[in-house]
Amino acid sequence: MAVSTTKATGSPDTPGATRHHRPVIESRSIDYVPLAERHGKVWHLFPVWFAGDAHLATIATGAIGVTLGGNLIWTAIAIVLGNALGTFFMAFHSTQGPQLGLPQMVQSRPQFGFVGALLVWVVALVTYIGYTAFNQVLVGSTMDHLADTPPSVSYIAYAVVGIVLAIVGYDFIHKASRWLTYLTGAGLAVFSVGIVVVAPFSADQLDLSAFTLAPFLIQLFHAAVYQLSWSIYVSDYSRYLPPTVGVRSSFWWTYLGAGFGGAWMMLVGAVAAGLFPKLGLVDAVVRAGDQLFDGFGGVLLLVSVIPLFTIGTLNFYGGSLTLLSSIDSVKRIPLTLGTRVTTLVVLGVASTGLAFSANDDFLTTFGDFLIVLGYLFTPWTAINLIDFYVVRRGRYSIREIFNPHGIYGRWNWRGLTAYGVGFASMLPFAVIGDLEGPLARWVKGADVTMLVGLATSSLLYLALCRSLDTGAERAVVTAADAGLDPDHAGHQAEAGQHA
Fold it and tell me: Is the pTM of this model over 0.70?
């Protein structure tokens, strides 16, 4: 199935495929992907999200519980449970891509309004830039360790590689992820089997009776939030799939890929921190790998740092789509390859500048960053999923999403209210570094904000949407999107059935 060789115009009515071949460089950005251009297999989502999680930044997340005083066995349990929880919500976002054919963040307009969605887009941009900068710092320290490369050179090289690969786009990301899954999977398998045989784990590290609540819950929710933070990415990499793949298969391939990749790599971090608690992250990983045989630590480190370049590509690619969506809400611009490249360069300059200004206390800073992300994205996740699966049941107008004066309004008071109240409900339970909300002390410093935010935002949004006439809205959707896919009549009905 071919992708159009015409340039994207920003309109959902962009002409369909020329049907000859897919261009090397992706031509679309935030515009709708017509059914004639859909391609790929649903299992391809597994390697995208396995490789998306199997890297050094994920290792850092898995080391948090041990550094806070938890033992290895309870940290491992928290990692597995946290990944299971956070990936559950993330994977449901992935299923939206094939049904709507749109990038993830553009789908926020029906819940928050054409302009109101800027609220979550700004948060998403901060996330993309922040994660990229953290990854640049990791790559810089790793290459300094492996090859005495100055960190400044690595920062710039990382940005250049990520930008170039993001320009090539969607199909390359999927192909590269499959190869990286083979590479990282092999390295992780060797390490996992070998470390069980040779590692001198102490009895204290494996003592199930040595349970400490705060480190356990902090690790659990850090892992969950880490996976939840992928929610702003996932539809970007499933939107070219045909809607006939359905919700169930796209959910499970995403869930298994991200769940296995995330939990496995976090467990490597927990093991490295447990074996060598006084060493920094990079040195601990190397020493842990060298427990198998001399030199394998360097191999393990290299295997965990290579996927960071693909993650940089994901961050630049998704960040560009989000920045273009933000600009589109303020001023309509042609969505050409040139505008996409410009946004990529802007993001590269911003993340590189942040990387140059980063301090040495990386692990603590990264942990606090994850906490803040959890507070900001939890209400959005709840509202977006409740709207898609419960309120509107997958029935949206593609044309009206791009209409600044359309049926979704410029400011949607229901979504904005639920977001604000949901976020406020989390603050009394907040724990950021040494700062604790009043109710956080009541639960002895355990961060349960994610559960509070999800429940509050979901229930309030459902209550506010009781006054929404979805029947009348569906009639407008059907009329507005008539002829959207002239070669595939009935797309909206088909998408609604799959959702």
Answer: yes
